[in-house]
């Protein structure tokens, strides 16, 4: 019973959604929409489960003072503070605190919005910006013409990088119209539109076939890993 | 020579990148832009929408991608607002609502004071559910939205009252930085609803979305460069945007980006020279 019921639910829902895709009419279209709504409701509850899990994991690590427990404490403090600010809509106006449950979360006097604007936003942008430094360092070390494949990668990277700046246009702007297809911006566009597109499409089709195969195994009950069983 | 400088210390690399970004920001270097056919195509498609058309602008990104994506959000918003197109904002990212409020506050309310919320533009806000939420928007938007992003009943709103599903819109413009994003809007939304979609995204996302172009995706604005090209086309078509009151953010950011790219190219060339010379010396 414990295994059969979930398998029957999986098969019924999976089969119905497949049928609904090919027959988008009543009652299948209606069922598809309802299942999507169920998913949306479940997704909203997933936030509560996720939040609970975060408190449990980091709370345990902080309580046991395991390695990196200080970071867990900061994570918990940030999470709980923002949750409390968001739920109670505490504000700070004209030098005095207060709270307004009907308030708009985008109100700049709310502590929730201030935390978002003054902590989350700059920290997030800073971490993303740091990538530029690591990319530069990695490019310097990795893009070496050590063999044919590496040389191809190197040349492609240089063409794309130059094609993303006006320097590429300046370097090859003198080419006559008959040879314009050799200009760096044109080559850069060609690399993106032809080899990149072909490679990505091949990967996507492969992945899609894999997903179809795995989905069929799950729907037919051959793969039961989602029930916590091993293959 | 090469054996005296086998490898650059990474701190030197970091310092060079830092300088290549900082100096152009301080000195405000600007470079000429040449619009690519792809950007021109997207621009012309938005430009061809008649006044009163409905444009769904999906802002699926977070503060980490703001510097790269805000300029294209702003440029498309300006373009649509100038044309009298009705703009509907929506986001599938929990971090998205502040992105919507920013563009409303900094672009629409500041640069187009005659436009009114609920009459010319509206936000539908954020909904969880990723691709499932997009699928609901495609089939029956009212199952998901009972109010707009500011709490007004969807039936009472002048702009929202007539909305049924994705087919209610004339075009979708997706600005995204990951999942769910343009790919999901195509797969679960516009492709099944038969609504045209164009997209703006971070430069690293662009190659992943090329497979959908041109049949399922009208065009891609990839990164700051494409946004700068869009701004240029906007200024050419509507000269009033050349006024400093309308900041050309992407054009300004192309200076630091160009110098950073040139620095990286220089580092790659230097690295290869080091390897080449060291190899020759080794063979001797």
Sum up the structure in keywords.
heterodimer, A: 231 residues, mainly alpha, two-stranded antiparallel sheet, extended, B: 284 residues, alpha/beta, Rossmann fold, 2 domains
Task: Give an overview of the whole structure.
The complex is a heterodimer of chains A (231) and B (284). Chain A has 231 residues and is mainly alpha-helical. Chain A folds into three domains: 1-66; 89-142; 144-222, no CATH class. Chain A has helices at 4-22, 28-64, 69-88, 111-142, 148-163, 166-172, 184-193, 195-219; strands at residues 90-93, 96-99. A two-stranded antiparallel sheet of chain A has the order 1-2. In chain A, α7 (184-193) runs parallel beside α8. The mean pLDDT of chain A is 90. Chain B is of the alpha/beta class and 284 residues long. Helix content of chain B is 49%, strand content 12%. Chains A and B meet through α2, α4, α5, α6 and α7 of A and α1, α4, α5, α7 and α9 of B.
Structure, briefly:
The complex is a heterodimer of chains A (231) and B (284). By secondary structure, chain A is mainly α.
- Largest sheet: spatial strand order of chain B: 3-2-1-4-5-6
Number of distinct beta strands of chain A: 2
The largest interface is: A-B, 56 and 62 residues
The average pLDDT of chain A is 90
Shape of chain B: elongated
Distance between the termini of chain B: 15 Å
Q: What is the CA-CA span between the terminal residues of chain A?
A: 19 Å
What's the total helix number of chain B?
9
The CATH superfamily of the largest domain in chain B turns out to be MTH777-like
Question: What class do helices, strands and sheet pairing of chain A give?
Answer: mainly alpha
Draw up the topology in text.
The complex is a heterodimer of chains A (231) and B (284).
Chain A: H1 4-22, H2 28-64, H3 69-88, E1 90-93, E2 96-99, H4 111-142, H5 148-163, H6 166-172, H7 184-193, H8 195-219
Antiparallel strand pairs in A: 1-2
Helix pairs in contact in A: 1-2, 2-3, 3-4, 5-6, 5-7, 7-8
Chain B: H1 10-27, H2 37-47, E1 54-60, H3 66-83, E2 86-91, H4 97-111, E3 121-126, H5 130-140, E4 171-176, H6 182-193, E5 197-201, H7 206-209, E6 220-222, H8 223-237, H9 249-283
Parallel strand pairs in B: 1-2, 1-4, 2-3, 4-5, 5-6
Helix pairs in contact in B: 1-9, 3-4, 3-8, 5-6, 8-9
């Amino acid at each position: 019973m414990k295994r059969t019921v979930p398998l029957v639910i999986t098969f019924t829902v999976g089969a119905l959604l497949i049928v609904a895709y090919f027959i988008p009419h009543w009652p299948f279209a209606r069922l598809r929409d309802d299942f999507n709504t169920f998913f949306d409701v479940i997704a909203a509850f997933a936030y509560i489960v996720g939040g609970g899990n975060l408190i449990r994991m980091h709370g345990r690590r902080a309580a046991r003072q395991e390695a990196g427990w200080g970071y867990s404490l900061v994570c918990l403090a940030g999470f709980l503070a923002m949750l409390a600010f968001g739920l109670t809509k505490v504000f700070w106006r004209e030098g005095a605190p207060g709270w307004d449950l009907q308030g708009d979360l985008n109100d700049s006097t709310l502590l929730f919005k201030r935390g978002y604007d003054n902590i989350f936003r700059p920290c997030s942008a800073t971490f993303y910006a740091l990538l530029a430094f690591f990319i530069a360092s990695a490019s310097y070390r990795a893009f070496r013409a050590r063999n044919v494949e590496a040389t191809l990668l190197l040349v492609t990277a240089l063409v794309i990088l130059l094609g993303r700046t006006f320097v590429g246009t300046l370097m090859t702007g003198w080419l006559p119209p008959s040879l314009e297809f050799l200009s760096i911006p044109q080559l850069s566009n060609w690399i993106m539109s032809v080899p990149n597109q072909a490679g990505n499409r091949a990967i996507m089709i492969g992945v899609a076939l894999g997903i179809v195969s795995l989905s069929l195994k799950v729907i037919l009950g051959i793969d039961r890993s989602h029930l916590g069983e091993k293959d | 020579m090469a054996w005296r400088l086998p490898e650059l210390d990474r701190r030197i690399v970091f310092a060079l990148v830092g300088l290549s970004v900082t100096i152009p920001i301080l000195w405000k270097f600007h470079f000429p832009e040449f619009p690519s056919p792809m950007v021109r195509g997207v621009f012309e498609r938005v430009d061809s929408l008649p006044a009163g058309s409905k444009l769904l602008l999906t802002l699926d990104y977070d503060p980490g991608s703001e510097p790269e994506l805000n300029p294209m959000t702003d440029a498309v918003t300006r373009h649509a607002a100038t044309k009298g197109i009705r703009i509907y904002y929506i986001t599938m990212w929990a971090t998205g609502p502040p992105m919507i409020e920013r563009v409303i506050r900094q672009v629409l309310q500041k640069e187009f004071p005659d436009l009114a919320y609920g009459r010319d533009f509206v936000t539908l806000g954020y909904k969880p559910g990723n691709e499932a939420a997009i699928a609901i928007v495609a089939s029956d938007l009212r199952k998901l939205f009972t109010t707009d992003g500011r709490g007004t009943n969807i039936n009472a709103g002048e702009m929202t009252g007539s909305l049924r599903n994705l087919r209610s819109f004339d075009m979708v413009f997706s600005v995204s930085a990951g999942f769910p994003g343009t790919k999901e809007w195509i797969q679960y939304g516009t492709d099944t609803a038969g609504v045209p979609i164009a997209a703006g995204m971070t430069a690293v996302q662009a190659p992943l979305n090329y497979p959908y172009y041109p049949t399922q995706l009208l065009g891609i604005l990839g990164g700051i460069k494409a946004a700068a090209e869009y701004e240029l086309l906007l200024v050419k078509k509507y000269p009033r945007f050349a006024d400093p009151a309308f900041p050309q953010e992407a054009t300004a950011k192309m200076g630091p980006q160009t110098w950073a790219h040139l620095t990286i190219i220089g580092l790659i060339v230097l690295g290869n020279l080091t390897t080449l010379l060291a190899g020759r010396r080794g063979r001797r």
